[in-house]
Amino acid sequence: MPESPDKPKVVRLIKKSQLPSLADESPPVKESSPSQPSEPSQLSSSAEPPQWKSERGPIRFNRPRRPGPPGKGRVSPWSKKPSGKKTKAHAGAASSKVRTQARASAPRAAKPAKPAPVVLTPAQQEEILNLYREMVGKGERPPEGRRVKIATLLNIPYAAVAQVVREHVTHERYRRTNFEIEKLYWQQVRLGQKNAGTIAQQIATQLNLDLGRVWWWLEKLHEPRKSFVHDPELGEAEKNGILAAYEAYLQQAEPPEKGLHQTLAEQIGNVTPRQVHKVLWAYRDQVWQTLEGREPPVPVPPANDEVVAPS
């Protein structure tokens, strides 16, 4: 049976001095067992000496030994320069390190200090807002702009004036939006609407607002405070006076300049803004509990609305 071509073959290496005596040597004879006959001799005296070749070609004796791994001071067969000698890369790295140290030790020019922000007093802020309201009320718009003219008249940096006016305009815009939402809410309740979700959707459509914005303010109007338990109760006369003033507030075209609770407390007298808030919350919550669908579909309010407190 022929041998498989993939079977490895063993090649035995013999020194040249042993080659002449191979022809005279006879192969070792195996002792035959009684159950197995002995095999005939494979080599005879007339056989020619074997050719010492491998599959890769003739075998070469006394080949030069391959050098080992490169060491210090030894030339590696894989590199052209001794490994112990510094190359140009080492010199470049050293010079770069020297330049970095020189730059670090060199004195740096001091950066110009930023001007300190201007801190305005409450009187200056009020003066800025009075001039701004006066220009808006008269419809006056200077060529250079209202904020630039105010900064020139009061000799205040423009950035400080712009910041005060920006905060005022943003606050007034949110106060007006909250006022309109509250008015429309009570209009829908008095018309007999019993679903809070439907009311919020109608308000958002009418004012062209995001639905989450409307829900946020409706929840703020009906949100209790922990301080209510510490506020003294009022008599029925004071409560009726607060509710009557609140109905008049809902009929106005513009929100008051001050907050709702502060305005009603000054109008009625002998009550505090926190007591006014407590009475109004109880009245609002009593009506709110009678509505259906009080869970908002979008509970996330707009990011800028957290700065506005319920008035």
Structural description of this entry:
With 311 residues, the chain is mainly α. It has helices at 88-105, 122-138, 146-154, 158-190, 196-207, 211-221, 236-250, 260-268, 273-288; strands at residues 53-54, 57-58. A two-stranded antiparallel sheet has the order 1-2. Helix 2 crosses helix 3 and helix 3 crosses helix 4 (158-190). The longest helix is centred in the middle third of the chain and has 33 residues, at 158-190. It is extended, with a radius of gyration of 50 Å. The N and C termini lie far apart (106 Å). Mean pLDDT is 75; it is low at 40-45 and 302-311.
Which range best describes the helical content: under 10%, 10-25%, 25-40%, 40-55%, 55-70% or over 70%? 40-55%
Radius of gyration: 50 Å
Gap from first CA to last CA: 106 Å
Poorly predicted segments: 40-45, 302-311
The proportion of strand residues reads under 5%
Q: Estimate the global geometry from the Cα principal axes.
A: extended
Provide the succession of SSEs: EEHHHHHHHHH
Spatial strand sequence of the major β-sheet: 1-2
The profile of the biggest β sheet is: 2 strands, antiparallel
Total strand segments: 2
What structural class do you assign from the helix and strand content?
A: mainly alpha
Number of contiguous helices: 9
Mean pLDDT: 75
